[in-house]
Each structure stands twice: as C-alpha cells, then as structure tokens.
C-alpha cells in the first residue's frame, strides 16, 4: 500500500486559521483602496511580531479601523487614537495606529491628485515570477519593494519600509513566493 504525503505549506501548517490564510489569500491578487490600505496597515502592525498574531486580531482591526475605508479611517482623531490604545483586541502601538490613520489620509491625497493607491501599488509589480525552491531563496526585500516603499513615503505613507513593502507585495499577489513544492503551487492544498 502506498500513501501519498502532501508537501508542506510555505508556512502555516498545523493552525487552521494560518493554513486557510496561506491556501486562499496569501499571494492572491488584491485590488481596491480599502483592501490595500488594510494590507499595508496589517503588515505595519506585524512589524516585530509574528503574522499569526496579526491574523488572529484581524477581525478586531477591521472593526476598529472601520473596514479600512480610507475616508472613514482618515476622519479618526486623537480621541480615537487614545480609545484604540486602550483596546486590547488589537496591537496597541501609538506609532502604528497613527500611521494607519495618516496612511488613510495619504490615500485621500492620492485621490485628490487623480490617482489611486491601487494604481500606484500595482505599478511596482515585477514582470515575472521567480521560482523559489526553498525558504532561503525568498528575499527580505527587492529593488521593487525598495522603490515601492520610497514612492509611498513620498506620498506621505508611514511605517512602510522595504521589508514591510515586500511582505505586502507577497500578501497582495504582486509576487508569488509560494515555494515550488508548496501544495498551493501543485494544486494539492485542500
């Protein structure tokens, strides 16, 4: 009798929430102002922490940051910052909270200039997928993520450096860093 063993995921094996995120979201193209603002914010909140920590808190983040609708988030004020600092359901970091509000305001400034976050963000997608054979082949940043971070900083975005930019590019499908042996790549994930 022969048994078939599925290849291990790139990450997330053993935690149903993490597995679902890996299998159905990570690396899938994300478009839309609120959707991209959410990913930028969550990647910023993740800085220095594990992604599963952010993933577990994502429903609360969506609630307190008003589904990341830029107009609503941009309207939050100092009283809201203080309220959020007291909310144990999210990561309570003043700089990250203020950056999220400031980044929503930067999205609105893009709109005032006739541009969208979606257009700007996706303009940094590399031209082709590079096959990753092992975790050591996945970079922490790339020339595209450095350029994206620089462009967003120029537009007023905060707490979004090249490494965070690359993580967002992975999460939003600008790059596909599923390893060659990953069941998502081979179609074996359930």
Fold and architecture overview:
With about 190 residues, the protein is mainly α. It has a single domain (about 15-185), classed as Hypothetical protein, domain 2 (Endonuclease III, domain 1). The chain is about 55% helix and about 0% strand. The chain is built from ten helices and no strands. Helix 2 packs across helix 3 (about 50-65) and helix 2 (about 35-45) crosses helix 9. It is globular and about 50 Å long. The two termini are about 25 Å apart.
Briefly summarize what is shown.
This protein has 190 residues and is mainly alpha-helical.
Strand content: under 5%
Largest sheet: none
Number of domains: 1
List the uncertain runs. Answer: 1-5
Topology record:
Layout: H1 16-24, H2 33-46, H3 51-64, H4 70-74, H5 78-85, H6 94-112, H7 117-122, H8 143-154, H9 162-171, H10 183-186
Kindly list the characteristics that best describe this protein:
disordered N terminus, 190 residues, 10 helices, mainly alpha, 53% helix, Endonuclease III, domain 1
């Amino acid at each position: 009798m022969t048994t078939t063993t599925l290849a291990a995921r790139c990450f997330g094996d053993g935690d149903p929430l993490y597995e679902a995120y890996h299998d159905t979201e990570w690396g899938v193209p994300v478009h839309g102002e609120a959707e991209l603002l959410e990913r930028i914010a969550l990647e910023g909140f993740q800085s220095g922490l594990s992604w599963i920590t952010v993933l577990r808190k994502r429903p609360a983040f969506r609630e307190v940051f008003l589904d990341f609708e830029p107009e609503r988030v941009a309207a939050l004020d100092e009283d809201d910052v203080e309220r959020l600092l007291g909310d144990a359901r999210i990561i309570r970091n003043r700089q990250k909270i203020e950056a999220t509000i400031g980044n929503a305001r930067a999205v609105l400034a893009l709109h005032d200039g006739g541009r969208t976050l979606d257009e700007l963000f996706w303009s940094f997608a590399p031209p082709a997928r590079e096959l990753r054979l092992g975790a050591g082949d996945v970079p922490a940043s790339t020339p595209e993520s450095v350029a994206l971070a620089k462009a967003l900083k120029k537009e007023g975005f905060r707490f979004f450096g090249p490494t965070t930019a690359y993580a967002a590019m992975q999460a939003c499908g600008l790059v596909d860093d599923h390893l060659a042996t990953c069941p998502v790549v081979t179609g074996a994930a359930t």
